[in-house]
Amino acid sequence: MKKNKTTHLMAGIYIIIFVAVFLVLTGRFMYIQATGEIDGVSLNEWADQKRTSSYSISAERGKIFDKNGMTLAYDRPTYRMYAILDEAYSEKSEEPLHVENPQKTAETLAPLLDVEVNEILEPLQNGMDSELFQVEFGKVGKELSQQKKDEISDLDIPGINFEEEAIRYYPNGMFASHIIGFARETEVETEEGYKNEIIGIAGMENEMNDLLSGKDGFISYQRDRYNNTLLDPSEVIQAPEDGDDVYLTIDQKIQTLLEDVLTQVDEEYEPSKMNAVVMDAKTGQVLAMSSRPSYDPNNPANVENWYNDIISNPFEPGSTVKMFTWAAAIEEGVYDGSEGFKSGSFQPNEQVKKIHDHNGGNGWGIISYDEGFQRSSNVAAAKLVWEKMGTETFLEYLQAFDFDEKTNIDLPGEVAGEILYNWPLEKITTSFGQGSTMTPIQQMKAATAIANDGQMMQPYVIDKIVDSSTGDIMEQKSPNVVGEPISKETSDQVLKLLESVVNGEHGTGKIYQLDDYSVGGKSGTAEIPNPEGGGYLNGRENYVFSFLGMAPIEDPELIMYVSVQQPKLKPTETGSVPLSFIFKNVVENGLHYLNIDPDKDEIETVEQITMPQVIGEKSTDVKEMLTEQDMKVSLIGNGEEIVSTSAIEGETVLPSDRIILVTDEPTMPNIIGWSLRDVMKLTDLMSFKIETFGNGYVITQSIEVDAPIKENDYLGIELSPPDESTNEDEENSEETEDTIDESSSETE
Predict the structure, then answer these.
(1) Which residue from 333, 320, 319 is spatially nearest to 486, judged by alpha carbons?
(2) Can you tell me where the transmembrane regions are (predicted)?
């Protein structure tokens, strides 16, 4: 009886516990069903999150163009390889979609990627051991070209897949590198975590990064565990906003011309530095700008100098400053060019060190101030400041020319020079370019006042900003007058003085004469401070040789500054030899290219050719006609009809320009020896996907000669400098025939 009571009691207790647990569980289930939440987490939202795949859609970075629409920087598609390892990924497929045999996969991929088998096998094996869904291959599997991706895809290797990703590409290689700069994929922190994004590192890529970058979009949809889209995927798409395009004032043809001659001088004279800039005298637009050392933004390794010296490296400029000293004296009304003075040396008082002319202080006896300018007399400059104007008046003109402030050119990293004006000697030496410092771009800005009727123009390199999706111009730059330090009458008189330096009987710049255009300018020979102690470096080559010139001198269209530091000169050469080679080639050809009429009498006219209508014409007849006009013609294919050409009807071309004619049956030409710019013409016409290696002229091509070609074909080329290539079309370097006697050398 006692046992029975105990049994009933325990049974009752268990029933109560069971009922309590049942009520709790049932209540919990009913609560979850009613609220759809567990611990404050919505089950619907959690399920949606688990079913939803979301992918970022990268915005395309804006392109950078030259002023005529030639592409200078753009996002080039490349491919990243990855491998699926999870067997479940192949469950619903008749063919395997994951890596089944890692050893065979590695042995197949390794020779295609030019790596050891272990470099492929190791990440595959480690991923399998760790039961990972997929693995990548690090640097080995990144930035694969379209051609390489196609080679691997054609093998149908199970589990090997690709994802497209962009890299920043610069089709011209080492071209205006300090202006364009470069951008690289960089890991950045966002609200969703870290992601890789192309970020501007230097130059315009950095300065305009926010405009160029754009805004990424995304796509999200619901899928099952096999990544198959559900019937009702709740798809959401946010389109990306591509970056804006930036058009520079740089002219690709003039810039290429400048790059070519700088490379030639760099190879022949091995200077420690070179700088050159070409500007439109009327507008302040920078048409070309380059420095050495430079770099290829596609592979910016071992860069010797990140800074754009033209805007960021102030130095003592030497005698190029004398044009502004004479301009100040003329504007102030104290200049009489026919007045005589005693050259050789000048000492204002016993407390001030003697000033000497550059011929050892011997001078040329009593000469006029006009002749003093031709001969680049330091004494003449000193006397104009000390005796004619007064030092404080001269300082006002230096400030009116903005030598004490930045030009505010639209490039990053500008540094202004400094006017040293504390002691009497500093006030005098500033008149002929010693002591005080300035940048080449400051001198160019000031020179626009002389070239442009007294109006000083703002230098700029950004022409316009364009919405890449609509083509609408968002911002358009225009010429900006930022000062009038001198009058038109003064500028006219200074132009005549500058012309006398190049053409006058006693001028120091005869070597800068052009064949077809009158030139004016002023040379400079700046001393280099000794980095290991006080004073300056010694030796005939230890100078910064420079020239600031303009042409045609009666009404200048182009202004050019060029400097060469510490060139290795031949015993018979002066620093003007490499300078003149650069200046003459760029300015002479640049003026012809811009269709500026020659202004010299009895000149041998450089033939310019207007491109006729050739589209639809018979290919053999067109080639024969253009060849008879001494044009360099490349016929693409053996078709009977011309369907496209690199020069449009009515365009003016020079005989040195390559004219590419595409027929209706295009085949690959032999491009060995072509320059990169000629290859880019062909690329634009055929819409090739191009990949370049090196700089200079083509030495190998991936498409065989006479092979049929079509749009979107891949073309890989390797280039080498002229002295390493087998370029049959390469023009011989022009040897200067000018000779310089002792009186035309200049050293201050």
Answers:
(1) 333
(2) 12-31
If one counts every other C-beta atom within 10 angstroms of the C-beta of residue 294, the result is 22
The reply to whether 29 falls in a domain is yes
48, 214, 218, 350 from 198: Cα distances, Å = 32, 11, 17, 63
User: Could you tell me which of 673, 656, 685 has the C-alpha nearest to residue 719?
Assistant: 673
CA Rg, the chain, in Å? Answer: 35
What's the residue count for the chain?
748
User: Considering the domain boundaries, does residue 740 fall inside one?
Assistant: no
At position 587, the amino acid (one-letter code) is: V
Cα–Cα distance between 222 and 230 in angstroms, integer? Answer: 6
Q: What residues act catalytically? A: 319
Write down the pLDDT at residue 694.
65
Q: What's residue 378's pLDDT?
A: 95
Rounded to the nearest 10 degrees, the angle between the axes of helix 488-503 and helix 322-332 is 140
Same domain, 29 and 86: no
Cα–Cα distance between 226 and 465 in angstroms, integer? 45
Interacting residues of 731 by C-beta distance below 8 A, sequence separation 6+:
656
Read off the tokens for 439: 């940048």
Strands 632-636 and 658-663: parallel
Q: Which amino acid is at 257?
A: L
**pLDDT per position as a tens digit, 98-127:** 898 989 999 999 999 989 989 899 999 998
Closest CA to 664 of 616, 604, 722: 616
pLDDT at 163 (0 to 100) = 86
Using CA atoms, how far apart are residues 145 and 690, in angstroms rounded to an integer?
Answer: 9
| β-pair partners for 456 | 483
pLDDT digits (tens, 9 = 90+) for 720-732: 765 433 333 333 2
Domain ranges, residue 169: 54-248
The pLDDT of residue 562 is above 90: yes
Q: What is the spatial order of strands in the sheet that 236-238 belongs to?
A: 52-57, 217-222, 236-238
Question: So what's the pLDDT on residue 724?
Answer: 35
CA–CA distance, 546 with 500 (Å, rounded to integer): 18
Cis peptide before 552 (omega within 30 of 0): yes
40 and 175 both lie in a single domain: no
* Same-domain check for residues 310 and 390: yes
- Rounded Cα gap, residues 600 and 518, in angstroms: 6
What pLDDT is recorded for position 630?
73
Q: How many CA atoms does the CB half-sphere of 472 hold within 13 Å?
A: 3
Query: What kind and span of H or E run contains 562?
Result: strand 558-565
637-671 residue pLDDT tens: 888 898 888 887 877 776 667 889 888 899 999 99
**pLDDT band, very low/low/confident/very high, at 492 (cuts 50, 70, 90):** very high
Q: What totals of helices (H) and strands (E) does the chain contain, helices first?
A: 20, 33
Token reading at 212? 């160029």
Domain count across the chain: 4
